[in-house]
TrEMBL record:
It is a multi-pass membrane protein. This is Transport permease protein. The keyword Ligase does not apply. Residues 24-253 form the ABC transmembrane type-2 domain. The keyword Oxidoreductase does not apply. GO terms for biological process: response to antibiotic. The lineage of its organism: Bacteria, Bacillati, Actinomycetota, Actinomycetes, Micromonosporales.
Length: 256
């Protein structure tokens, strides 16, 4: 177990050393959700008085902010597990070199997913800090939401890596971006589920970002209930399945 953690840690360490050279570029990913929060949450919030969530009525910006937190975790994790992994897998052949060392396929996959998740957590922590400073959420809510954001990061990191193993060219990454935009717009990010048509609402409820948004929103609004376990179980299930598929696919690509 310790040996496995050391091997996975060595993959993460390699990514950390590379990221130190481009840390400003990495932090730029935090800006996008802040712009959306400012432009839509506060801007549109001046036109929309409030939104009812469960038994509470909250300002529109307070409704949107937790969703932007989930989006931050998704974006950070997906970028690293798609663009960066694709480059190392198909062009730089970095994983072929890694496998000459004691690292195995599972170690490489776990290391890359962990690093992508950490990037998502960094984005989430920075975004949460802004929300706390602006009194959009409380410190207590932030402490509850950060671990949930970490789970969201793991889920999308595994999904991103799984999808990347099926990509054949840089143009295929446009489909990843399209998928992210669709999730971003239709995962109760800006409007409650009740506002969607029945068919679209049913589709929304099977998407991972919907469960991420609902989980984090409930924690930020301190609406704790057993129903949150369903969202958590869904995310963990998707993460495990995606990681298993990603590992198997990575093995086929690198070994054959």
């Amino acid at each position: 177990m310790i040996a496995m953690l050391w091997r996975v840690g060595s993959v993460v360490e390699r990514n950390v050393l590379v990221a130190r050279r481009v840390w400003l570029v990495m932090l730029s990913g935090l800006v996008e959700p802040l712009l959306y929060l400012a432009g839509i949450g506060f801007g549109l919030g001046s036109l929309i008085d409030s939104v009812t969530v469960g038994d509470r009525t909250v300002p529109y910006a307070t409704f949107v902010a937790p969703a932007m937190l989930a989006v931050s975790a998704m974006n950070g994790a997906v970028y690293d597990s798609t663009v960066n992994v694709f480059f190392k897998l198909r062009h730089r052949k970095a994983y072929d070199t890694m496998l000459v060392t004691p690292l195995g396929i599972g170690d490489v996959a776990a290391g890359e997913v962990t690093w992508a998740q950490l990037r998502g957590v960094v984005y989430s922590a920075g975004f949460l800090l802004v929300l706390v400073v602006t009194h959009t959420v409380s410190w207590w809510s932030a402490l509850l939401a950060l671990p949930a954001a970490a789970v969201v990061g793991f889920t999308f990191a595994a999904l991103g890596m799984m999808v990347t193993t099926f990509l054949r060219s840089w143009q295929d990454l446009d489909l990843v971006t399209l998928g992210q935009v669709a999730l971003f717009l239709f995962s109760t990010t800006f409007f409650p589920l009740s506002s969607y048509p029945a068919v679209l609402g049913a589709v929304v409820q099977v998407t991972p970002l919907y469960h991420a948004v609902e989980l984090i929103r409930a924690l930020c609004l301190e609406q704790i209930g057993w129903g949150l376990l369903g969202h958590l179980a869904y995310l963990l299930g998707v993460m495990l399945v995606a990681f298993a598929v990603a590992t198997r696919r990575l093995g086929r690509i690198l070994v054959t």
